[in-house]
Write a structure and sequence with these properties.
GO molecular function, one term: 2-isopropylmalate synthase activity
Mean pLDDT: 86
Low-confidence stretches: 1-10, 309-313
Helix content: 25-40%
Shape: elongated
Biased composition (Polar residues): 1-13
CATH class of the largest domain: Alpha Beta
CATH architecture of the largest domain: Alpha-Beta Barrel
Strand order of the largest sheet: 1-2-3-4-5-6-7-8
GO biological process, one term: L-leucine biosynthetic process
Number of helices: 17
Number of strands: 16
Family: Belongs to the alpha-IPM synthase/homocitrate synthase family.
Protein name: D-citramalate synthase
Length: 522
């Protein structure tokens, strides 16, 4: 369906060829309104517990997000309990509730002790007439009544016309003006179904912003959520609704971490504590079960990862050669990975990280074997690289830790496991319990190695590499000890054994880098 609204050609020129109506400069005060706990939770399959919502709210507050929409008080008693849990945290951020255009929703929000509400009323003809079955005059009158009621009860109030991007602009302007007359703190332009263009967004927000403080709420169904945020800000909006990682209904909302870094990098505008963004994104991904795409801007695994020989060589010479901003800006670290595109500089740098030094001939041999592994579709882990170097240099590695035996059971009660390790030539046996056989086995390994060999499991990833009942799996782990990190992969038909073999090998590599460190069994 094409737009029925006309777009003034001068708007197109103004947005894309000339200066915006409201310049994007460092002295602009743009605020972030996070709706991860409300709109984000409406993504299919996402359901957050009260504890998870509280944890995310704390993380949002640490990132200096201005407004946190904690949920919809009208949803039910459980949701209200969750909202109260957030309001009881004593956050610096303003905590709000979503409220439909009925007084009871505002009363329920007040019972949750929120700071404010976003009152959502129909704006487009299809919502006014088909969904709600009312008239535009009634929507305006009811909106004024609700805004006045909420303000009389001490709430911060935002009035949002649902499906605003498909609404008649004269009516949208009339609705916002009525809201401001009744005392609303701001209006909000809502592209509820991700339908509109940046030109139309610019025109609509320009008209609303002329009346008072205006927010923008964009969805990504056309891949234009971020562009429409820019158009909104250029038109005078001063608050952006969004979610962490861009989760939300259908194609999701604009990703707040992308808004924050883009405004910082391109316009020197500060909207959030940027070095909190990665941890926040990871927390939301774990809590929602919605994994981050590797190529996701800002927080994806590949955002600061380099494999290409040309890129790696350039990055080693100049950190900013192939990156728009330093990874530390958003709480990340740069990673050089090896594969079919690896070059000499990258392989040499990776070896030196593990205190392995090679001459030119040895380096050439290692690079050839790394590329051969990559050509077979295999990601080259740290353990692979070190093994290749050992073979090229004719070195025999003395293992400090070796798995000799593993037994794990999970049926009929608490999962248990026992391991037999050879540690610096001494046999050690230990057992452990856990939430599953893998967890129990890891606890058994930790018990056998003791506190001085403690290492952190940074990541754990499983891939099925064959089908059928005897399917092989590959477990890849990343572990760190002190300032050293190592990545190891192991394959087996038993996921528990593959996990333990990978972790033990990683621990062995980490301990081998510090030969003076004893492996305690206390």
């Amino acid at each position: 369906m094409k737009f029925s609204e006309s777009t003034d050609s001068s708007t197109v020129t103004e947005l894309f060829r000339g200066s915006p109506e409201v310049p994007l400069t460092s002295d602009r005060n743009v605020q972030l309104f996070d709706t991860t706990l409300r709109d984000g939770e409406q993504a299919p399959g996402v359901s957050l517990t009260p504890a998870e919502k509280a944890d995310i709210a704390r993380a949002l507050d640490r990132a200096n997000v201005d407004v946190i929409e904690a949920g919809s008080a009208c949803t039910g008693a459980g949701e209200r309990e969750t909202i109260r849990r957030v309001t009881d945290l004593g956050l610096d951020a303003k905590v709000t509730s979503f409220a439909r255009g009925v007084q009871n929703d505002i009363d329920l929000a007040l019972d949750c002790d929120v700071d404010g509400v976003t009152i959502v009323v129909p704006a487009s003809d299809r919502h006014v007439e088909t969904k709600v079955g009312t008239t535009k005059d009634d929507v305006v009158a009811k909106s004024q009544e609700l805004v006045a009621y909420a303000k009389d009860h001490g709430l911060w109030v935002e009035l949002l016309g649902e499906d605003g991007s498909r609404a008649d602009l004269d009516f949208l302007e009339r609705l916002a003006e009525a809201g401001f007359e009744a005392g609303a703190d701001r209006s909000c332009f809502a592209d509820t179904v991700g339908h509109t263009s940046p030109e139309h967004t610019y025109e609509a927000v320009s008209r609303l912003a002329a009346l008072g403080p205006t927010s923008t709420h964009t969805h990504d169904d056309l891949g234009l959520a971020m562009t429409n945020v820019y158009a909104s800000l250029a038109a005078g909006a001063d608050m952006v609704h969004g979610t962490i990682n861009g989760i939300g209904e259908r194609a999701g909302n604009v990703a707040l971490e992308e808004v924050a870094i883009a405004l910082h990098h391109c316009y020197d505008m500060e909207t959030a504590k940027l070095d909190e963004l990665y941890d926040l994104a990871q927390l939301v991904a774990r809590s929602t079960g919605v994994d981050l795409a590797p190529n996701k801007a800002v927080v994806g695994q590949n955002a600061f990862t380099h494999e290409s020989g040309i890129h790696t060589d350039g990055t080693l010479k100049d950190d900013s050669m192939y990156e728009p901003y330093p990874p530390e800006t958003v709480g990340r670290e740069r990673r050089l990975v090896l594969g079919k595109h690896a070059g000499r500089a990258g392989v040499k740098a990776a070896l030196e990280e593990h205190d392995v030094h090679v001459d030119d001939d040895e380096l050439s041999a290692v690079v050839d074997r790394v590329k051969a592994l990559g050509d077979r579709g295999k990601r080259v882990t740290d353990a692979d690289l070190l093994t290749i170097a050992e073979e090229v240099q004719g070195r025999e590695r003395e293992r400090r830790v070796e798995l000799k035996d593993l037994t794990a059971a999970s049926g009929g009660g608490t999962p248990t496991a026992s391991v037999r390790l050879l540690v610096d030539g001494e046999e050690r046996v230990a057992s452990g319990t856990g939430s599953g056989p893998v967890d129990a086995s890891v606890e058994a390994v930790r018990a056998a190695l003791g506190a001085s060999a403690n290492a952190q499991l940074e990541s754990y990833h499983v891939d099925a590499i064959t089908g059928g009942t005897d399917a092989m799996v590959t477990v890849e782990v990343e572990m760190s000890r002190g300032d050293r990190t190592v990545t190891v992969a192991a394959s087996d038909s038993d996921i528990t054994r593959a996990s333990v073999v990978a972790m033990v090998d990683a621990l062995d590599r980490l301990l081998a880098a510090d030969p003076t460190s004893p492996v305690a069994d206390d």
